[in-house]
Each structure stands twice: as structure tokens, then as C-alpha cells.
Amino acid sequence: MTERQTMQPGNLGKINNMHLTDVERSARKELDRAPRPRIAATVVLTIGDRHDPKILMGQRSARHDFMPSVYVFPGGRVDRIDSYAPYAGELSPRTERVLEAAVSPRKARAIALSCIRETYEETGLMIGAPAEVGARNMRNSTYDAFRKAGLRPDISELEVFGRAVTPPHRHKRFDAWFFHRHLGDVAPPDVADSHELLNVGWFTLQEIDDLKLQRATVMMMKVFKDHVRRDVPGERIFYSRAKHGVFGQELFP
After folding, report:
1. If residue 54 lies in a helix (H) or strand (E), which one and from where to where?
2. pLDDT value at position 134?
3. Local confidence band at 64 (pLDDT 50, 70, 90 cut-offs)
4. How far is C-alpha 93 from the geometric centre of its chain's CA atoms?
5. Which has the closest alpha carbon to 90: 129, 119, 125, 126?
6. With contact defined as beta carbons under 8 Å apart, do 24 and 171 qualify?
7. Is the dihedral angle over the CA atoms 138, 143, 176, 26 positive or is it negative?
8. pLDDT tens digits for range 145-202
9. Model pTM?
10. DSSP category for residue 79
11. What is the pLDDT of residue 248?
12. How far, CA to CA in Å, does 60 sit from each of 25, 65, 67?
């Protein structure tokens, strides 16, 4: 199965504002122009059968002014601290090559680290490796929690499989990178709700089909299903962005 057969570049259709909430429409109307996308990262964490796994997801609060009430994977924007935080492991050569086609090596690591950080903040799950850690306080509650646990956030085994830029009709925009990490055929690790995500849990692919998802998540779930069917990840990744009011997909880099 080739990349060309499974991920053919092309148009996905015109942008439709009907799925926006009234709050989102109002927030966008207050802006003179489309906001610049902020770099973000999301991780699809799986357990069980690698080809038919359970996936960690949670529901965004109805109080959010961006994508309220929908189920999402853990993730969020990249923060400055992610560029300086200690870490364990290294990016795979493939993931490193794809990311560094767009950003610097330090930014590539920061993008990967951000989804590990966000996973802990949103679900309570630490993806870390035992390491000698110093007494230095990072002045960041998440990275300090890893330090106190004797762990460093582990960026190894993260495989990037997609990239999507929020279209310009939204009042918040992200240039989001999507990663996958399989935790093995293990019992579901303990997770918990947070102020960011509710109803956090491990869901089968069939259960996810019945959840309330945002359009971009539905699209990336299709890309992810193709990704996990492969014995070896593709050298190029799915890339979705809007051009001249039309959703398009291509391969990156």
C-alpha cells in the first residue's frame, strides 16, 4: 500500500461555518483578519492490539470558547518552557526529519515535549523514563512533577503522522502536529479528568465512532487508522490546510 494510494493530495471541500458555535462566530467577527496559527501538538496514545487499539481521549468543557464539548486527543500549544525542559530519549530519525523540514531541531523537540506535557496536565498520565534529575526547580508545575517523580518526559517512540492548520474562519488557529505512541498490550493506565478535559478514558475505535467529534478530529482519525495499518510509517505525512477558502490535503515534506 503506497502513500499515493492511501493519502492522495487534493481538495476536501469548501469551508463551511455552520459547525461553529455562536460564541466562536462572534469572536471571529471581532477580528480584523485571520489570526496567525500557533504551533501545537497532539498525541494519540494507544494500548492493546496495535492495529485495533484503545485510544486515550477526553471531552472539552462546554465552557471553552474553542471547540466546546467535543472529544479530543490530549494536546495543546507549544510553550516557551518546552524548548528548555529536560527530556529522555530521542526522536526517531523519521520523526526528526519530518519535523525539521519545518522547524529547527530545538523547536522539533519542543513540539514533541509539549504533547507529553499536555497529556499530564489534561489526563494525569506521565509518559516518562527514570532518570537522574537535579534539584533545579523548573518553575513549571508539570515539569517539576516529573522531576519529583524521578522521571524525565520521554519523547522516544513518538511517530508523527499528520499535520493540520486550523482554517482562517476560526478565531483561534493552530499549526498542529499529530503524533502516535503505542504503550503496549497493557492494562489501561490510570487517567483522570482535569479542568481541560472531562470524561477522560480509553476508547475503542468503535466507541469513538459514537462520540461527538469536531471535523478535524474525524479527519485525523481516518489518517490515524491508515497509519496504524502500516507495518512501517510512511516517509511523508498527511498535511491539511485551507487555501483560498478551500480545504486541501497534501503530503509533507
Report:
1. strand 54-60
2. 67
3. low
4. 19
5. 129
6. yes
7. negative
8. 999 999 999 999 999 999 999 877 555 788 999 999 999 999 999 999 999 999 999 9
9. 0.86
10. P
11. 85
12. 18, 10, 7
Q: Say which amino acid occupies 53.
A: P
Q: How far apart are CA 113 and CA 143, in angstroms?
A: 10
| Location of C-alpha cell 478565531 | 171
The one-letter amino acid code at 208 reads: I
247 — pLDDT class (breaks 50, 70, 90): confident
Residue 206 in grid coordinates: 468503535
Q: Which residue has the higher pLDDT, 36 or 176?
A: 176
C-beta pairs of 205-211 under 8 Å, 24+ apart in sequence: 205/52, 205/53, 205/55, 208/55, 208/57, 208/71, 211/57, 211/59, 211/71
Q: Extract the runs of DSSP E, i.e. beta strands, from 185-231.
A: 197-204
Query: How does pLDDT run across 120-134, given as a tens digit for each residue?
Result: 999 999 999 998 776
| Contacts for 185 with CB less than 8 Å, ≥ 6 apart | 47, 48, 49
The superfamily in CATH containing domain 3-252 is Nucleoside Triphosphate Pyrophosphohydrolase (3.90.79.10)
Domain definitions of the chain by residue range: 3-252
For residues 111 and 77, give the distance between their C-alpha atoms in angstroms, rounded to a whole number.
Answer: 8
Is 74 in contact with 119 (CB distance < 8 Å)?
A: yes
